[in-house]
Amino acid sequence: MFNVTTGRLFYILELAGTFTCTWPVDVNSSKSRILIRNIRWSFAMLNVTLLLTSLVLAVYHFREDTTTVMKTASEMTALLEVFLDLIFCKLKSAQLQVLITRIRGFVEVANEDESRVLQGYVDRYKMFFSVTAMGYISTAVSFGFVPLFSTQDLPADGWIPFATEPLVLYLVIYVHQVYCICTAALCIFVDFTIALLFSFPAARLDILGTKLRHVDSYRMLISCVKEHQEIIGFVEDTKAIVEALLFKTNVTMGSAVICGAFQLVNNQSLAVKSQFVPMVVSGCAHLYVIAWPADDLKESCKNYSSEEYSFFQCIHFISETFPECTIFKLDRRRPMAGKTTRNGQRTDNHDPEEPEDVPHPNE
C-alpha cells in the first residue's frame, strides 16, 4: 500500500493545479511570478476555448448524425468543465488561498494525535481517489494515442473549417488538442482540493469531540468554544466558494457520462470504446469524489453533536469545576455562542460578573 502523507498530498495537488492553472496564487508571490501565472492561465483558456468552439461547430455540422453528435457532446461537456474550472478558480483564487493556508498552518502545528486523525482521512480516501485519477489519465492516454493506430485523424472530434494536410499545421493542432485533453484529465484534482476542504473540518470536529470529553476547566471549555466557532467559519467560507463548482460538476459530468455511455451501447469500433470506457467509469466515480467527504462531514457533525449533548447533560452536576455557574453552549448552527445557566434556561442578558461572549474569529 502506497503511503501518502498530508504534506505529500499538498505537493501533488499543487503540482497538478499548477499545470492546469487552477491552483490559487500566493498573494505574497513576486509580481513576475504572478505575471507568468496570468500568462499561463490565458494560454490555457485560449486553447480550451478554441477546442470547445471546434466541438460546438461539430455538433452543429453533424447534427443529423446522432452517433457523432453524442460522441462530440460527451467530449464537449467534459471540456466545458475545464473551461468553468479555469474561470471559477481564477475568480475565487484569493479565497481558496486563504483556506488552503489555514489548513497548512494547522497541519504544521498539529500534535501527534491531531496528525493521526488527519492522516486517517487521507488514508480513507487515497485508494478511491487514486483509482479515479488513474481512470482520467487512462482516458487522456487513449484519446491521445488512438489516432496513431486508427483511421481517426485527431484526438478530439471537433470540426475544423480548413484543411489540416500540411504536416506542421497538423502537428500544431494535434499537440493543441492533446494539451487540452491532459488539462481536462488533471482537472479532477480541483475536485480533490474541494474534497480536502470538506474533510479538514470533519477531522477537526473529530478532534474537538475528543477534547470536549477531557474538558476539566473553564478555560478549556472556552478554548473549545473558540475552536468550534473557527470550524463553523471555515465551513461557511468553503460553502460560499465551492457552491458553483459543485453545481458545475454535477451538470457537466452527468452530461458527459450520459453521452459517453451512448457510445458503449451503440455499434462502435474497439478504438472508440477504448476511449469511452475509462471516461464513463471515471466520470461516474467523479460524481462521488465530493459526495463522500461531504457525507463524512455530515456524520462528523452528528457525532460531535452527540458529544456536545452528553457533555452538557453531565456538566450541570459538576458545579465545582465551573464556579461561575455559567457555561457556554456550543451551537453548531450559530456563529456566536449563547449562554446557558445551571438550571438549563437560556439567557442573552449580559451580567458584568459573567465572562464575555467569545468573539467570532473573523471579528
UniProtKB/TrEMBL annotation:
Subcellular location: Cell membrane
GO cellular component labels: plasma membrane
Keyword Metal-binding: no
GO biological process, alphabetically ordered: signal transduction
Main localisation: membrane
Keyword line: Cell membrane, Membrane, Olfaction, Receptor, Sensory transduction, Transducer, Transmembrane, Transmembrane helix
Family per similarity comment: Belongs to the insect chemoreceptor superfamily. Heteromeric odorant receptor channel (TC 1.A.69) family.
Topological category with respect to the lipid bilayer: Multi-pass membrane protein
Transmembrane domains' residue ranges: 41-62, 128-149, 169-198
InterPro entries per record: 7tm6_olfct_rcpt
GO MF annotation list: odorant binding; olfactory receptor activity
Stretches of the chain forming a coiled coil according to its record: none
Superkingdom, taxonomy of origin: Eukaryota
UniProt keyword Transmembrane helix present: yes
Region (Disordered): 336-363
Pfam families registered for this protein in UniProt: 7tm_6
Residue ranges with Basic and acidic residues bias: 345-363
Protein name (record): Odorant receptor
